[in-house]
Amino acid sequence: MAQTIGYPGLLGVDYTPIIQTFWIVSWPDIAGISIPAFTAQTSKRPSWNFEEVEIHYQGIKRYIAGKITYDTFSVTLFDPIDSSASQEIVAWCSIIHDPNTGGHGYPSMYKHDINLELWDGFQNVIQKWTGKGAWPSKVDFGALDQKSGNPVEISLDIRADWWLLEF
Questions:
Q1: Domains of the chain, with CATH numbers?
Q2: Which of 70, 75, 25 is nearest to 163 (CA)?
Q3: For the segment 81-93, what is each residue's pLDDT rounded down to a tens digit?
């Protein structure tokens, strides 16, 4: 006789997935520099990896977790005419390195927290990631194409010291 295998708790559960389109990046206000939040078009959630520490003992290898490395946080922005994301990003990068003077800013001047918030359908925050000590490590102002009618995009890689999932 066939036996039915049940999985308690799986059936009848009110399951609502987090939807990929409900999110926003909150940028820091750095010395009057403010990247418009509505310009963020694509992103990813934070990721990291642990180094493997190899321990040799009596002919075998064992592994434990070593130092953690947080990957860069990638985000693509549209560049609006009225509130230029390009100008704000260049101003932020000029705090890191000013091409006019060759000067470099202090980390306390250019490193700030950023927030990635995921929302439900009613714009309630259901997940909040905070990148501590974040700064733009790579900026790509994107391609231009006379045949395309697509908006101009800016790609950013943001380096953060670490990421916290606050809730």
A1: 23-165 (2.30.110)
A2: 70
A3: 887 888 889 999 9
